[in-house]
Amino acid sequence: MIDASPRVKSIWFTDDDPDDADILRSAILFTIPEALYRPIYSGDGLLAALIHHPPPDLLFLDLKMPVLDGKACLRQIRGTLKMTFPIVIYSGSPDLANIAQCYQLGADLYIQKPLRYHDIMSTIREVLEISWKDSRPSIHPGTGNRFIHYPYVS
User: Fold this and answer.
1) Closest C-alpha among 52, 5, 58, 62 to residue 32
2) Mean pLDDT over residues 84-90, rounded?
3) Are 61 and 52 contacting, i.e. CB atoms less than 8 angstroms apart?
4) Which residues, 6+ apart, have CB-to-CB distance to 107 below 8 Å?
């Protein structure tokens, strides 16, 4: 467990797969037991929640969802709604063009979904240890966790 006081407390996760949501919930609450975790199972549900509730400290966002996918949500959150809270893409796609497009749309971090539970736990722990309130991730690609695609910072 980590001390969540300088870290995020309100964490939302948007994915249409309840199994992925349960696994991520487990990893988050193991790392930060006092976290306020909110699963949302659709992109349109996410946008409605953002309009009617205070935004989270951190959002995990899947890309492949019916009706309104993750990229469309990202466009709405950063463009139309002008919200600036950290957004971590949590997707099965390792495609570099896809990753680059997510960063262009305003994602703060991109995670390729690990398949093994141990890898999920270590990946989520690493993301939650980032001091999101102070800065954005600034680690060069190729360092750290192999499932996390950090934005390149020179």
Assistant:
1) 5
2) 94
3) no
4) 61, 74, 87, 88, 89
